[in-house]
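hiii, so i know i said id send this last week but things got crazy w the move. better late than never?? heres the sequnce for the chain we talked about at the cafe, plus the structure i predicted for it. fair warning i was half asleep when i ran it
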Amino acid sequence: MLQNMLKFSVVNRYLLRFSHIQSVQYPFSKRNIIQLLKPLCVGVTQKPWFNEFNQWLNCAKNVHTSSGMHIIYFAKTETKATKKKVEKEAKPDVKPKTSKKEQPPAEPTEVTNGTNEKKITKRNKAEPVSVENVEETVAPKARKNKATSSKKENTKVPPAEPAEGENETTEKRITKRRKAAEPVSAESKEEPKAKKTKGKTAKKADSGNKEETQVEEAKKPQKRKAVASKKETEPDSTKAPKNSTVTNWENINFKCTTKSPKGKAPNFHITTWNVGGLRSWLKKGCLDILKYDEPDILCIQETKCAVDKLPEEVKTIEGYETLWCSSDKDGYAGVGIMVKDKPLNVIYGIDSKEHDTEGRCITVEYETFFVVNVYVPNAGRKLVTLPKRLDWNEQFEKFIKNLDSQKPVIICGDMNVAHKEIDLANPKTNTKNAGFTVEERDGMTAFLGNGYVDIYRHLYPEKEKAYTFWTYMGNARAKNVGWRLDYFLVSQRFVDNVCDNIIHSDVLGSDHCPLSLHIQI
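okay and structure toks below
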């Protein structure tokens, strides 16, 4: 029966099906299979299919079918297609190694692998090795034991080395199965104890090294996981905080110690702030600026509140007189002034029928200067109101010229233009957006050419990242991605009275921040 056997397999993972091969099925238990086939292995070790059969037998030891039985196929015929498939699946020839433990084979054969004889391992016992070759690699103690038992034939069965890339763990399992499947002789049981101890020590060392390597490799991904989780739980210290609206007034220094070019300390100061809606501004506690900054004049823009709808807290403020200029359109534009000293005169608007209905300008006159609080029209999205803006520029220029002809002028408020590239964070991407178009910037240049000075740039000509407006989108204020849209412009002849112009970017409550002008009068 074994002479006709060409291919065999086991149901489950080790089953190879050949639909074109006639076969006979023999159901046995695992134990009966091994007992049945072991005697049949004697005298057939030189057959070309013996190694594969022996490997299968060892694998079959731990394989179970769903019914707990094994089905063995004894193929009687083999087609050319099957032969090619078998050749592809066959393992390459391997170099035998000498094992330190001795196991008697069924029939020994000589090994002629030259130097590879010394590389015999205990993983494969399918191929027999002659006594002569084994004796060349056996330890002296083993040869001595062999000499005392000359009547007994004692040879080693070298295991075939696994194919390249084969898993070491699989090799270990196969080795153990082969040991159990091979018949054990009395000679192998009488091996010297020293030799067994040596083999066990080497095996332990081998397994110990592998276990250490596995432990180290297992630890590496765990460390990476721990680091990743740490990064997820810990906040990024470099990430900017979200936009806030609550001002820590106690930590802000509003005092000015800078003297004027004439060497005199400031004795008067004006603060301007676009509040972005008076009602919301008050709810955020922003009226406290009067308490901490103590300006002589507070100018606010974009109140968005009609005079008859003003909140009670701003109608009457202790120590200040309030003046309001609102738009005819409710919830739009609007400006207001809070002054300590009553002005000589108050002017509402810029003497323009078209623009004065929007409540964009209010002027107070004092003995030595005018203070103009202004909220300049925006060019709008897609520049839809740019013509209106340019017309405003002409009307406003005429109005200021008239005032300046009488006494110096101090203009403050939201001019809705970033004059130079230094006055915004992203100039290259905003050349076609409202506030940084060529027309608006040229309009500011032309206005200043009439004898007025942008006092902040006069005092800090190269200071960067000095902004007064930040959009609420994209956490812009926390990242300081802003625009300088709010100004103090003074008549050229009044520059020597200026001590400092301070931007209070730490004061929150609006998308604009306040700025102060300290002067000596």
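btw The mean pLDDT is 73. thought thatd interest u
miss u guys!!
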